[in-house]
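Tutorial handout. Part one gives the primary structure; part two gives the three-dimensional structure as tokens.
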Amino acid sequence: MKNFPQGFLTGLALGVLAGLMNAKQSGEKTRHQLKETYKDFKVDFEQVDQDYARFHSAIQSLSAESKQTIDFISHLTNQTKQKVMDETEPRIRRIKENIDQLNKDIDKISSTNPTSKTN
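Part two.
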């Protein structure tokens, strides 16, 4: 894809040249038109080259900014995950302790009252 602008402009120049060569006009006029066409072609090619350089630079900047954004979001996600883990761990521990205590209480009640049925 890098050579597309160069190939396009070369094809354009050759097409113009072929058209001028087949024109019904004097050689001097044709040479003058060729010089003008060459000047125009050169200006157009320089413009395309500058546009390509700006485009390439913009893509590189966008790529760098995207990487920074992804790194930032990843860092925030990890921070949030750790915060949630830090906040929920004590709660989960307390819930497990309460469940263990309830199970002990159930076992205690069951052992003191042997006639009760547990399903």
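Part three, for discussion. The two ends are 74 Å apart (CA to CA). The longest helix spans residues 27-112.
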